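Thread: quick sanity check before group meeting

JM: Hey all, I'm pulling together slides for Thursday and realized we never actually wrote out the predicted structure for the chain we discussed last week. Dropping the sequence here so it's in one place. If anyone has concerns about the input, flag it before I start.
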Amino acid sequence: MARFSLAVLLLALAYVAGPQLVSIRDTTSVGPGNPGMRELPVSFQASSGLEVPLQEPATDMAAFSHLGARLVPRAVYHIEARVMSHERYYWDPSADLSPVDLLLGWGPMMDERFASRFDFSQSGRFGYWQWHEALPIPEKRVHDSLSNVHIIPASDEVDAAIKDVGAGELVRISGLLVDAYKPDGFVWKTSTRRTDRGAGACEILFATRVDRF
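JM (edit): ok, ran it. Output follows.
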């Protein structure tokens, strides 16, 4: 398990917290079969009131196998967010690893009255939002408060929980941002920034814990 900076741990313990269609940036317990995995630090498992997702580099974590793919940890990740949209995938090259994408929103999107004025959708592993009035906040802040997340469930329990989550629900999800490599040559790389957009800007989250709140 990687060592985490004191600053990040203290931050977590303190509970750190248009008419056109716009494309935005592209867990229970650790699953069996991953002997290198351990429970995440307490500060990453239970927190509340996060203003933004919490992330710490996973530079000391070894790669591990999951469902025939090699997963390379890039960061430890914890997010508290509203589910804006939920999309199942069955036939694309990554569907066996990640059967669900969640379009997640935090910050201003945690306000149901504000979030309900948007239209959200997902297709082709992208997320989209639509606003029919003048935006009350800068468009960049909207972009930076949304992410289309490819979920790789760590266990059957997490898989069931993720598939059961619906739009409008509030969730806490913990796990690892990972790059994925499959034997057939398929490569899938995660974003580690909240401010990027377009292809390759989605987070790939190996989810070890998911809770509603």
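AS: nice. The longest strand covers residues 69-88. The helical segments are 6-13, 42-45, 112-115, 139-143, 156-164.
JM: adding both to the slides.
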